[in-house]
Amino acid sequence: MYFETILSPALLPQYNLSRKTVIVIDILRATSSICVGFNSGVSLFHPVANPEDALVLEQVGFITAAERNGQKLQGFTLGNSPFDYLNTDLNQKKVAITTTNGTRCLHLSREADEIIIGSFLNLNAVAKYCKEKNRDVIAFCAGWKDKFNLEDTLFAGALAQLLSKDFKIECDSTLAAMDLFDKAKSDLSGYIKKASHAQRFERLGIEKDIDFCMQLSIYDFVPKMVGENLVL
Ligand code: MLT
């Protein structure tokens, strides 16, 4: 079994997703917030490409969640902060969600054999899942508008290190991600504070989201796409 890493959606055409498990990674904050939502009892997330699509689903009982450029869109119930999903009355609710990068990657991954959600919050659960599935794995970094970002690549490196005894790693982007994680692992939150998205959060006054999203393995589940929905 092989472990590969896609550092940006712009590189997706260079990879073959079929018959592989694709782990969509958007640490700040889509995949982190989705895990928080499931821990708060959300029954499913329905990723949509446009905010208008979420509003249509609101008519049939969905809760709406929309973020663009790091900010919650007006007129939507939730944004993309993990705190939007923490201890909120979301039990058994269905959430129609659209974010700048993360939900787009879920749609881009449809050729995959299966699509799962990776975040630092469920890191060990994702590693265990990949070992048990015994299938080639692609870590798919959402990045920022097709640009490379540090936080998603750090996760890919952390996961690859956990799987290095079970998977062949001949992919330079994975090897680079592992080295990056080695450099940052002693103080992940501190390291990430220099990332462009973290600086965007500071300008928006939401840097507390960074520390929350950088917690390790606080959830022991792996959300996955079934049809058009993310479920546990
Ligand atoms: C994304 O989906 O692009 C990110 O999570 C954006 C954000 O939440 O700031």
Structural overview:
The chain has 9 helices and 10 strands. It is of the alpha/beta class and 232 residues long. It has one domain (3-231): putative 2-phosphosulfolactate phosphatase (Alpha-Beta Complex), CATH 3.90.1560.10. The strands form 3 sheets. A 4-stranded parallel beta sheet has the order 1-8-2-7, with helices on both faces. A hairpin with a 2-residue loop joins strand 9 (224-226) and strand 10 (229-231). The radius of gyration is 16 Å and the shape is globular. The model has no long low-confidence stretch (mean pLDDT 96). D-malate is lined by residues 26, 28-30, 67, 70, 80, 99-102.
CATH superfamily: ComB-like
Strand content: 15-25%
Ends: how far apart?
25 Å
Could you give the order of strands across the largest sheet? 1-8-2-7
Give helix % range.
25-40%
Radius of gyration: 16 Å
Question: Tell me, what's the shape?
Answer: globular
Question: Which descriptors would you attach to this protein?
Answer:
alpha/beta, 36% helix, four-stranded parallel sheet, binds D-malate, 9 helices, 10 strands, 232 residues, putative 2-phosphosulfolactate phosphatase, single chain, four-stranded mixed sheet
List strands and helices in order, with pairings:
Elements: E1 3-6, E2 21-25, H1 30-39, E3 44-47, H2 51-58, E4 63-68, E5 71-72, E6 94-98, H3 102-108, E7 114-118, H4 123-133, E8 137-141, H5 150-163, H6 172-184, H7 188-192, H8 196-204, H9 208-213, E9 224-226, E10 229-231
Parallel strand pairs: 1-8, 2-7, 2-8, 3-6, 4-6
Antiparallel strand pairs: 4-5, 9-10
The chain binds D-malate.
Residues 26, 28-30, 67, 70, 80, 99-102 line the site of D-malate.
